[in-house]
Amino acid sequence: MVSLTHYLLLSAVLFSLGLTAVLVRRNAILILVGIELMLNAANLNFVAFWRFGPAPDQLAGLMFVLFAIGVAAAEAAVGLALIIAVYRHYQTTDIDRIADLKG
């Protein structure tokens, strides 16, 4: 039997992998992938708490997940559009090389 603890541990591992990807990588696309991993970890938490909550027959947890997936898709589309625009200007997706965007 899989318990809530198993889901929470899996979610913590996913979140840690995403956070590591965001902090370690210098490629903007891989940073977006890390952010998506962290959002998926949050979605897994929503579903796990909904499933093991007091009223799993209500669809409140799934509605949170659907909204979170919608926001994540919009974030990915806008982020990818920004990365494409930066790439067209600087010919790189390396975060260290495009530091002169400041100011």
Describe the structure.
It is a single chain. The mean pLDDT is 87. The protein has a single domain (4-101), classed as Helix Hairpins, CATH 1.10.287.3510. The longest helix has 31 residues, at 60-90. The protein is elongated and about 50 Å long. The protein is 74% helix and 0% strand. α1 packs antiparallel against α2 and α2 runs antiparallel to α3. With 103 residues, the chain is mainly alpha-helical. It has 3 helices and no strands.
How are the elements arranged and paired?
Layout: H1 4-24, H2 28-51, H3 60-90
Quick overview of this protein structure:
The chain has 103 residues and is mainly α. It is 74% helix and 0% strand.
Please name the defining characteristics of this protein.
mainly alpha, Helix Hairpins
CATH fold naming: Helix Hairpins
| C-alpha Rg (nearest Å) | 17 Å
Could you spell the SSE succession in H and E letters? HHH
- What number of structural domains do the residues give? 1
First-residue to last-residue Cα separation? 55 Å
Strand content: under 5%
Helical content class: over 70%
Largest sheet: none
Low-confidence stretches: none
Tally of strands:
0
Under the CATH scheme, which architecture would be assigned? Orthogonal Bundle
Q: Tell me, what is the CATH class?
A: Mainly Alpha
